[in-house]
Amino acid sequence: KASNIPEDDSARAPVDIVVVLDVSGSMSGDKLALCKKTLELLLRELRPQDRFGLVTFSCEAVLEIPARKLSEVTKQAALRKIKSLRTRGSTNLSGGIGMGAREMRAVEEPNPVRSIFVLTDGHANCGIRDPKGIVELTKGCLGTSLKTGDDAPITVHTFGYGTSHDSALLQDISQATTGGSYYFVESDSDVASA
């Protein structure tokens, strides 16, 4: 939780974070606005040795920002990109998770903490639609069996936006990897505590 990060977080291990963001039509309005606030808060907390990447998905997944270390220039570019995002189309959750996993696994010399954050309402209607299929895809892409050498395992944290999100699916996705967690984001006050 962001509120638990100490003011002097210099002892915190460097992190690699790839955000998989739902920009489908069902995320229009408050949901996408809350996602943008979440990402702005996240970027403020990241330091130069941390990596950040962004995948968006509607009917197709798009690598918006390759996972890379954050200079002040790249952080500002990421904030501009996030502000420019608009909703469109259907929801290919499996495509987003798959591309996020590929981007995370492509990082050379990964940091000790590696996480994928999935921000969505969880209503898959394009790509793999079956909840069990989406969970199996997540396990296949990111399961502990893929841990090699000294690389840290990749955890998945899911963030459900709006009161009608598919909480069961998002909980199952977060539990597909060791150490994952699920958060419900309904309002501005939930953003800082997630």
UniProtKB/TrEMBL annotation:
A Pfam family the protein falls into: VWA
Domain VWFA: start-end pairs: 16-194
Annotated PANTHER family: CALCIUM-ACTIVATED CHLORIDE CHANNEL REGULATOR, ZINC FINGER (C3HC4-TYPE RING FINGER) FAMILY PROTEIN
Protein name according to UniProt: VWFA domain-containing protein
